[in-house]
Structure formats: structure tokens, C-alpha cells
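re the bet — no i am not wrong, look at it urself. input seq straight from the record:
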Amino acid sequence: TNSLTTAWRLYKSLSEEQQRYERQLIFEHPAFVKLCQQLLRDARRMTRGDLVFSLHALVSLGVPQNTLLLQTLVRVCQEKLNQLDNRCISVLATTLAGMDKDKNVSALQAGLQLLVEQRISSIRDIFILQNLMKCLGKDAPVFLKKKLEMAVLREIDGLTFPNALRMFLALAAMNYCSLPILNACSKKIQENVHDVPFRQLILILEACHTVQYRNVKLFSALADYVNSTAYLWDKRQIILFLSACETLGFQPTELLDIFAEKVTEDPDFLNLKNLLTVLRVYSRLNHIPRVQKHL
């Protein structure tokens, strides 16, 4: 398990092109073949942690799902499901979310869902809770989504800024609107808006759209941040942000004015796709730039 986990940690830090090359080297290495054979022999004697983390590492490395090794590990996880602690449940949920549906995977997911329902009251780690929310996804039954919401609300006082960002995405993955959680997350994000990476800004707005959550104070805080740091962003990034605002029907007036000036100063960067996006955004938000509107 340590060997597989170490291989995965090194592998995930590589670029996509390097990963393809390294995966081939790993799969063809004689030691990897022996490791897999030993894992197959010892699967039923492994500790619950080793079992779950080995499965996670193999799936993450891209070992084909229809191999005897992966199918065996999935079946053994089924047999030992009730022995898993909360951390192992979280890792297993993450692993299954990245696997295709087949007979064994579907059976294990169904068992995992029942186990989560029984264990929710004992889970105090907000990171594990939001991971389960994200992995169980929109197909989780409404009563289970509600139980997960109540479990998170019990721990909401300990919500940190990184957890607030992740919780937004977890709720979007479940397609579940919990106003108390979203409001608490929004407050944390507004307090730490200058620490939000650009990609997360877009994901937050997309999550708001998914769960139909409208918080003008949050939208304004994000827009003001992008507005005050517009010189740091590529014009295409600002187009992405404005497009996400348009989807929500939110008009960041000052940013729209500033961006219009950038476009008129340097229109050559616009390809047809970006041009159509800009026209759509300004049209649907019914915004006429403050200056140079004819340009």
C-alpha cells in the first residue's frame, strides 16, 4: 500500500503528458506486476485502511476497472464495509466516484450509501462530510442530503475559509440548496475574498447557479475583487467571470465599464468565440458602457 500510494502521489504532481509516459513505465515495470500479484493474493488479509488506500491508488493510476485485481478489491471492500472507519468511508466514496458503474461498483455504492446513513451522527469532521456530499452526488436520496445538511450544521461554527470553498462545490455536486450552509460559506468567502484563486471564483458562481442561490452581497464582493485586481487577470479570464455573472443575471456595472475600455483599447485579442460572448453578456445584462459606447 505504501508503494502504491507513493507512486500515486508522485504521479499526480506530473503534467498530463508526463503522466501518460510514466503510467506506461509503471505498468510495464516487473516490480509493479509482482506488487499487483501479491495484492491479489493478500486482499482478504489486508487491514481496512490498506485495502481502501490500495484501491484508491490503483484507480487513480488508471489501472483498468475490468481487471481481476480491481474487481477483487471492490468485492473485498463490500465484504469488509461495516469494518471501515469514517476516514476509510470518505476515501472509498472518492474512489467510487471516479469509477464506471458496473455490477460490483453499483452494489458497493449502494452499501456505502446505507452505511453513511447509519454513521452520519458519529461524523464530526466537516472535511469528511463535504467529501461524502460531493461523492454521493445528486443521485443521493433527498432524506440523505437532508441528514448530511444537518450533520454539517452541527459543525458549522468550526467552518474555515478553505472548507467554505469546498462546501460550495459539495452542495453543487449534490444539487442541494441549504440556505444556512450557503449563507455561512458566503460570509467566510466575503471575509477572505482576496485569497480566492481565480478558478475558484468561477466555480463559486457556477455553484450558485446550480443550486439556484442568489446572494447579491457575495456576487458584489467577488466582482469588486476582480474589479480592483483587473490588471492581474488575462482579458479572457475576465470574459469568463462576466459570462458567469450573466448566467446569474447579476450586473457588475463597474467591471463591465472597465472591461469595455480594455476591449476598445485592444480589440485584436478577441476571436469570434470571445466576441460573441462579450456581445451576449452586454446585451443580456442590458449594459451600455459609461464612455466610448460607440467604439
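see?? Residues 1-122 form one domain. told u. also The first helix runs from residue 2 to 12. so pay up
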